[in-house]
Inverse folding.
């Protein structure tokens, strides 16, 4: 191994220092020299940042002398040192020395001002904070060498307005309170101008703003703007605002330390008033929660206090609670009358005669300080049973009160009474009058049924169950009492009556009686007060008894005709009914035969006359076979229908209709023929013999054949040569076309 070669001392280059911002360019930095001098000389070169690497062109070397030059100003903040490599070669390019390091150090100059991290710093501190309470820290930076005084910063407050309330740490930039007495209500915001300087405060400087906000605490109680407030409210209203009481609080508006709370301390024992806080203005709003009565109390004097929602800070000196007096005057207004007894319940006997005074139903007017007159009227009287005195309020019966009635509800009749004062505008009230219609024993019990059948043997079917009904309601009805008429004591020898239940009794035969009808006078009595009784007749048919005590069939048939009606009378009634039915059938058959014969003759006579009838097609009846509509003979032969001639019988006359009282009068002129036809149409419409419009009509059937010729006969003169139609021109404009065709 070769021993390490000793490097010549001339070839070892110590670090070279050069100040940044050096302006004399080019500037000789150093001259390098190799100990191995060759006859032809040595070629020197350098490489590295600032030469052949970015940034280019800052350094250069004289290749023959080895002098290194600075060609541009340096900036330590960009590059604080450069490390280059130096080479020594002969003319042939052979390395004479090993490459050596060349380090160039850039010496710093104070060419950069300090910079605050932000233009405005913000901090908060509560008002009243003790001195030494730190609020915030401001900080700045310096691009110069931190190991030199060029970057040694010092902080200070240039301006803060008031008398030095804050101080700053010169080294750290921390801002703290310097004096007591911070009061947000006096000054809520402090604006400080702070400075940072390098060179330990003697170099370059820069400034920024520090804004300090004082946070509010509850150190000011609310106060009323004045000691007395006056308000006015109408009586008989509730849920309305009366007015406001105004307060002032120096604390921050909208904060919990500012919100007020009101209390009514005195003057409202009934709790008619309430007070709340307006969240926007912090004022107290007084309202009425219970209706006030001017006649009872026309003014109030309230004592109201106010305090904050949040309690005062302990450091605040104690002060008495703020008080104010609120005077409220109650304004009198017209009040509606009132019925003290509503509803009014009374009782009236049924059948009370008209005009009877049943009660006096009046109202009172609360407006005792105003002179007013009340008037009364019936607002609701569904059965129109009552009448009322408009001035005195006396209610009388207008007609007899009946029971039962559809207008009663559970025996009660409901009416409404209206009371109205004469103020402007008038007010009214409604009272309910409930009238109980008391039951009166005005009906005697009725025997049901009034007839019966029983066997004539005692003890073997010789009993009959009797019942009764009463139109009166309890307690004027059952139990019923049945007994034989005391006016006929002889009935007790053959008959007896025993009670079965509260509504029925049992009639029994005491001795064997012959068959036949019997009429027994009975006396029926109810249990009303006073009781009502009535003598009634019971028709009993005693039948032929069988072995088991029941009536035989023949006997039952005879008895079924009813009490007092014999078999002969029944046969006469049935025979008369059958005879009437036979006579009615014969009459109907005779009339039907006459109508058929008359219809046959008319059809044979009218085969050559195609306009024999005006057909009522709007009835949609039997089509052209329906020839019972109207008789045109009245138009064709009017002389037959003159007042002196006997009018012919209408073919469509009903069975019950006879000859008309007088024939229709002919028109006085041919132009009135339209009225004549309309009268005939009205007569046909009211004719009961034709089908009514509400019967099931056949619309798609018009008969099996037609007795009329085709319509082409209207313009033909083959069959009408013997007919004179000149009179058609005298019938008016409606018949002008027919007159042109046939005239």
């Amino acid at each position: 191994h070769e021993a390490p070669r000793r490097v010549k001392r001339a070839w070892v280059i110590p670090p070279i220092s050069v100040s940044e911002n050096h302006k004399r360019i080019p500037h000789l930095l150093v001259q390098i020299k190799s100990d191995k001098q060759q006859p032809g000389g040595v070629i020197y070169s350098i490489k590295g940042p600032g030469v052949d690497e970015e940034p280019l062109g800052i350094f250069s070397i004289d290749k023959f002398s080895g002098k290194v030059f600075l060609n541009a100003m340096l900036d330590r903040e960009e590059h604080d040192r450069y490390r280059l490599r130096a080479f020594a070669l002969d003319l042939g390019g052979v390395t004479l020395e090993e490459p050596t390091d060349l380090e160039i150090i850039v010496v710093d100059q104070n060419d950069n001002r300090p910079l605050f991290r932000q233009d405005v710093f913000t901090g908060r501190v509560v008002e009243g904070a003790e001195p030494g309470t730190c609020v915030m820290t401001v900080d700045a930076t310096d691009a110069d060498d931190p190991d030199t005084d060029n970057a040694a910063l010092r902080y200070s407050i240039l301006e803060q307005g008031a008398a030095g309330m804050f101080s700053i740490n010169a080294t750290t930039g921390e801002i703290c309170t310097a004096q007591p007495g911070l009061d947000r209500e006096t000054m809520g915001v402090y604006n400080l101008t702070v400075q940072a300087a390098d060179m330990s405060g003697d170099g370059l400087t820069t400034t920024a703003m520090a804004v300090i906000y004082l946070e509010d605490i509850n150190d000011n109680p609310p106060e009323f703007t004045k000691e007395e407030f006056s308000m006015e409210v109408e009586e008989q209203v509730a849920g309305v605002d009366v007015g406001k009481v105004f307060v002032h609080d120096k604390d921050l508006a909208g904060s919990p330390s500012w919100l007020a709370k009101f209390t009514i301390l005195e003057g409202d024992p009934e709790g008619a008033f309430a007070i709340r806080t307006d969240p926007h203005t912090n004022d107290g709003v007084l309202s009425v929660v219970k209706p006030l009565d001017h006649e009872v109390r026309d003014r109030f004097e309230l004592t109201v206090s106010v305090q904050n929602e949040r309690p005062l800070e302990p450091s605040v000196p104690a002060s008495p609670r703020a008080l104010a007096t609120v005077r409220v005057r109650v304004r009198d207004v017209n009040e509606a009358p009132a019925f003290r007894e509503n509803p009014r319940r009374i009782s009236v006997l049924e059948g009370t005669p008209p005009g009877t005074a049943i009660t006096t139903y009046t109202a009172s007017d609360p407006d005792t300080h105003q002179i007013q007159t009340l008037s009364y009227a019936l607002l609701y009287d569904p059965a129109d049973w009552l009448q009322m005195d408009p001035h005195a309020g006396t209610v009388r019966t207008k007609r007899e009160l009946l029971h039962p009635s559809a207008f009663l509800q559970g025996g009660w009749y409901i009416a409404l009474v209206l009371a109205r004062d004469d103020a402007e505008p008038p007010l009214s009230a409604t009272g309910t009058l409930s009238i109980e219609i008391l039951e009166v024993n005005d009906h005697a019990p009725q025997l049901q049924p009034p007839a019966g059948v029983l066997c004539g043997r005692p003890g073997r079917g010789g009993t009959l169950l009797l019942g009764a009904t009463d139109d009166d309601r309890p307690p004027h009805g059952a139990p019923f009492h049945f007994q034989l008429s005391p006016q006929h004591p002889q009935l007790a020898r053959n008959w007896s009556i025993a009670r079965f239940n509260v509504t029925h009794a049992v009639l029994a035969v005491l001795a064997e009686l012959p068959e036949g009808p019997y009429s027994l006078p009975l006396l029926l009595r109810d249990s009303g007060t006073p009781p009502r009784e009535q003598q009634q007749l019971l028709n009993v048919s005693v039948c032929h008894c069988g072995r088991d005590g029941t009536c035989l069939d023949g006997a039952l048939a005879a008895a079924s005709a009813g009490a007092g009606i014999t078999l002969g009378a029944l046969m006469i009634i049935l025979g008369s009914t059958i005879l009437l039915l036979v006579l009615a059938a014969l009459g109907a058959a005779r009339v039907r035969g006459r109508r058929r014969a008359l219809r046959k003759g008319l059809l044979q006579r009218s085969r050559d006359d195609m306009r024999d009838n005006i057909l009522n097609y709007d009835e949609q009846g039997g089509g052209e076979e329906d020839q019972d509509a109207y008789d045109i003979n009245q138009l064709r032969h009017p002389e037959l229908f003159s007042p002196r001639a006997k009018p012919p019988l209408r073919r469509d006359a009903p069975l019950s209709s006879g000859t008309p009282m007088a024939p229709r009068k002919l028109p006085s002129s041919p132009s009135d023929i339209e009225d004549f036809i309309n009268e005939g149409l009205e007569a046909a419409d009211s004719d009961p013999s034709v089908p009514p419009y509400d019967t099931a009509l056949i619309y798609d059937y018009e008969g099996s054949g037609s007795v009329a010729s085709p319509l082409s006969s209207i313009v033909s003169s083959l069959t009408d040569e013997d007919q004179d139609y000149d009179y058609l021109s005298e019938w008016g404009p409606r018949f002008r076309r027919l007159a042109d065709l046939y005239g």
